[in-house]
Amino acid sequence: MKYLLLICEEAEPVHAGPGEADAMGWVTEMEGRGVRKFGSRVRPAENATTVRVRDGELLVTDGPFAETKEQMAGFDVIECADLDEAVEVAAKHPMARLGMVEVRPFWEH
After folding, report:
1. Distance between CA 92 and CA 3 in Å, rounded?
2. Which of 31, 59, 64, 86 is the most exposed place for a label (fewest CB within 10 A)?
3. Residue 95 gets which letter from DSSP?
């Protein structure tokens, strides 16, 4: 089953030790296991554009759809046997210690 990992950070920067926030070791391990399909960092929330269509009218606003203290910093798409494995993979991501990782399953077709 495929899962989206939303890599999130707190509003206030967390002070990490040298290399502690570097996810390349996690990427190498998860790609070696065949679990990680792809992922990327994303630009800060102030670079977001939110698109809505209401009653046929296009509404475009600057910023994220929700105002929160926590912000999405990146994402990864993984494929795991079950939620337990997805949680195990998410827990190994450096941002699980420095921020948070939301695990969300994709709909299966």
Report:
1. 15
2. 59
3. H
Q: Are 73 and 16 in contact, with CB atoms under 8 Å apart?
A: no
Q: Cα dihedral sign for 16, 91, 67, 39?
A: positive
Q: φ, ψ for residue 18 (rounded to 5)?
A: -55, 125
pLDDT for 54-81, tens place per residue? 999 999 999 877 777 788 899 999 999 9
Q: Which residue has the tokens 């670079």?
A: 47
Task: Encode pLDDT of 2-33 as tens digits.
Answer: 999 999 988 777 788 888 889 999 999 999 99
DSSP string over 5-74: EEEEE-SSPP---TTTT--HHHHHHHHHTT-EEEEEE---GGG-EEEEEETTEEEEEES-SS--SSEEEE
